[in-house]
Design a protein that fits this description.
Bound molecules: zinc ion
Helix content: 40-55%
Radius of gyration: 21 Å
Distance between the termini: 36 Å
Strand content: 5-15%
CATH class of the domain at 140-272: Alpha Beta
Order of helices and strands: HHHEEEHHHEEEHEEHHHH
Largest sheet: 5 strands, mixed
CATH topology of the domain at 140-272: Nucleotidyltransferase, domain 5
Number of strands: 8
């Protein structure tokens, strides 16, 4: 079964990773290539002519406008005092997701405190979320509503739980019925208005949405999508084979959250945790390439100051 092929793929071993990105010089080169695959471009004027300064990390001075740019300026690493090797190790561990934040602490370099590990983790999750926001779903899409902190995804059961966030779980399928992409989106409520908005944002027109009988899903037709509710389906119908993949994703998410993260502030951080989960799921066929892709996402995302990381998300 396809799932096994994914679970048993090689990925990139830690020794292989360290052989490639174990020194500052290696990380500098990799960062430079990720930022400017076709050579330096001045962030201010776009010019290519430059000279290189070492202070001690590599800087670039544009020969047109004299602007000076560090390797990390304008990326999620901007202003960092950490060695690049620490950033790269975080990218590796978070990308591979064998362990998440707990691994960052476990394998921490001297001097990497819990707050530093937290910031690394959240900055990289934001970069993953940003990348995921570029993609919509199309074709046949299985959709369900779920809760973080509810019984389907771990945490305290019961409607009274305060640390509970509603989200829409959706998985698009290929022609053979295999899952392609997942999207997990926090929402305020599962109302028709919210589902219509969700569909207009995240579904390509012409998609076919399969859901259980919950009324709000009809609103996907507002986004020029077809709606196929399960016939005669009450809420029980979500256990039918038609919902196999969205159920699989929700099951994996539950395992994931009950393992590495235990409980976190769902209400505040749901969006980035869910997007990071989807990011990995959507790139599950090539785990070995994941660190490099996450590096590209991290340099493309831009600075993420701590105050913005800590502020509550609105969804
Ligand atoms: Zn310039």
């Amino acid at each position: 079964m396809a799932q096994n092929r994914i679970q048993f793929q090689q990925g990139l071993s830690l020794p292989a990773f360290l052989a490639r990105y174990g020194t500052e010089a290696q990380c500098e080169s990799a960062l430079e290539e990720a930022r400017w695959p076709d050579g330096f471009r001045c962030p201010r004027c776009g010019g290519g002519a430059h000279c290189v300064l070492h202070r001690p990390r590599k800087w670039f001075q544009c020969q047109v406008c004299r602007h000076q740019a560090s390797l990390t300026a304008g990326t999620v690493m901007q202003g960092t005092k950490l060695p690049l090797t620490t950033w790269f190790l975080a990218i590796y561990l978070i990308g591979q997701d064998k362990t998440g934040l707990s691994a960052l602490e476990l394998k921490r370099q001297p001097g990497v405190s819990y707050p530093t590990a937290w910031a690394l983790h959240h900055k990289l999750m934001k970069a993953m979320a940003e990348r995921e926001a570029h993609y919509t779903l199309d074709g046949i899409v299985q959709v369900d509503d779920a809760y973080l902190g509810g019984e389907r995804t771990g945490g305290k059961v019961g409607r009274g739980s305060e640390n509970k966030v509603a989200f829409v779980a959706a998985v698009s399928l290929d022609d053979a019925g295999h899952p392609r992409r997942a999207k997990l989106t926090p929402v305020k409520t599962s109302s028709a208005e919210v589902m219509g908005q969700w569909a207009r944002t995240w579904l390509a027109p012409g998609s076919t949405v399969r859901s259980d009988g919950l009324g709000c899903f009809r609103a996907v037709t507002q986004a020029d999508c077809r709606h196929e509710p399960t016939v005669g389906g009450g809420r029980k119908s979500r256990d039918l084979p038609e919902f196999q993949w969205v159920n699989t994703v929700l099951g994996n998410l539950k395992t994931r959250l009950s393992g590495a993260h235990h409980a976190f502030a769902f209400v505040r951080y749901a969006e980035r945790y869910l997007a990071a989960f989807a990011y990995r799921f959507n790139r599950r066929f090539d785990l070995a390439a994941l660190p490099k892709r996450l590096l590209v996402a991290a340099v493309g995302y831009g600075p993420a100051p701590l105050c913005s990381l800590r502020s509550a998300e609105s969804h």
